[in-house]
Amino acid sequence: MRHEKVERIYRAAVEVFAECGFEQARMDQIARLAGVAKGTIYYHFESKEELFAGLMNDGMNRLMEAVRQSVESRETAVEQMRGLMEAHLRFFIRNGKLAKLVLGEVFGGLERQRLFRAKIREYTELIEQVLRRGQRSGEFTVERPVETASGIFGALSVLALQKLFSLDDDPATGAEREIPVMVESMQAMILSGIRKTGN
Question: What are the structural domains, with CATH classification, of the chain?
Answer without folding.
Answer: 1-45 (1.10.10.60), 56-194 (1.10.357.10)
